[in-house]
Amino acid sequence: MGAAMYILQLLALGFLVVIGLAVLLVFLLYLVDTTQTGDAIRRNYPVIGRFRGLFTKLGEFFRQYFFAMDREEMPFNRAQRDWVYHATTGRDNTVAFGSTRNLNVPGTPIFANAVFPPLDDQFALTEPMLIGPTARIPYVARSIFNISGMSYGAISRPAVEALSRGAAKAGIWLNTGEGGLAPFHLLGGCDLVYQIGTAKFGLRDAEGNLDDAKLAEVGANPHVKMFELKLAQGAKPGKGGILPGEKVNEEIAAIRGLKVGQPGISPNRHREIDDFGDLLDMIVHIRRVSGRPVGFKTVIGSSDDWEEMFQLIVERGPESAPDFISIDGGEGGTGAAPMPLIDLVGMPIRESLPRMVDLRDRYGLKSRIRIIASGKLVNPSDVAWAICLGADFVTSARGFMFSLGCIQALKCNRNTCPTGITTHDPRLQKGLVAEAKYLKVANYAKSVIKEVETIAHSVGVAEPRLMRRRHVRIVQADGSSIPFSKIRPSYRGDTAT
């Protein structure tokens, strides 16, 4: 009995101490809030006013899990992310009881199923496609769906390793992003597309210019299949890449040619490229030195501006052409970017893609230049839509981040990613186990490809690249739908209904 009373006394004393400390803390916060001048709410409503900031920070998470409907959340809704998460398991990804998608929203794509689709034995897998016929070492790309550029530095070591190993298992390519070639890109033995940003990370000399010796060395790597000259990206059209200084450790600094803690700020464009003539000259130069196919990535502001480039290619000859063009939409990207650029600059992919496809085809370069679509294309419907409009390949970054376990915490730019994908904090990185995640990457890629092939089969063609604009209908303001071929006829006159 005595021992019990003693314990109760200790608990009571502990309770009083806790209450006393809480009162003291409130008093101190009151003094701080009433004397500070930076926040009017806290000054007028000391202590209580602090809850506003707390709820503001927590609001995005509460909305995600408790309040937002499956198809309401931005930038990617719950339905989109759940499809990816389920696809990564490699198991059945079917749903019951009908669609939750509102098919009356203007702009919604609806695929037109065939009355008599091909039989199962008349259906074929997507054929490989040749890229860069004039290069010393052309590339035969096996997959229609691949991983878009995410630099080591912007994403973590285990994330890069998982992507590399997953890409190899799925038979897809991995774009290095503009941060240079890290050893972890090579761990899986996958096909790599080396992205050359405006800062020339990994290929620069002491002055920041392109170093031909380094270029030739990278081109000789059997895993590097192509080079992509980055002109612009959807997150930051008109502005170079941004790698916060807190992410630049010794290893990343060595790969990129920076100082530890120095922000990796790329110029807003390539200094040696002032016009389309310079662009084509640079492409030819990189292709000659490396021996690999070369293309470029950009965001379209106006398709009229690009007419000059295609005219110049026709004048100079097809050997002057880029081997591919990656079209990124102005819908934002994976990392750090100013909000005005994310929200307001650059055409969305749904407008820019058909415009560039039409320009290419009108100048007779369909078999010479491959079109790669990128920009918020994470689900099979997105990929199939892009193929219908004329894309030869589709790449995704954020889709593969979801396959790694991304929860859309919106911490990519703060080095505090809770899933370990976009952080270099060892404590947070340990949550991302590459040996387990690479299978999810591979499963996601395979699931997308399989579902796109299923859509192609349903609309009545043998494989995805045979889909045309007439195969996808777009919902209008009145709720009806019309073939995209009626909205924007392709150059080949594909206007059938």
TrEMBL record:
It comes from the Bacteria. GO terms for biological process: glutamate biosynthetic process. CDD domains: GltS_FMN. Residues 143-461 form the Glutamate synthase domain. The chain crosses the membrane at residues 6-32. GO terms for molecular function: glutamate synthase activity. Keywords: Membrane, Transmembrane, Transmembrane helix. Belongs to the glutamate synthase family. This is Glutamate synthase domain-containing protein 2. It comes from Salipiger marinus.
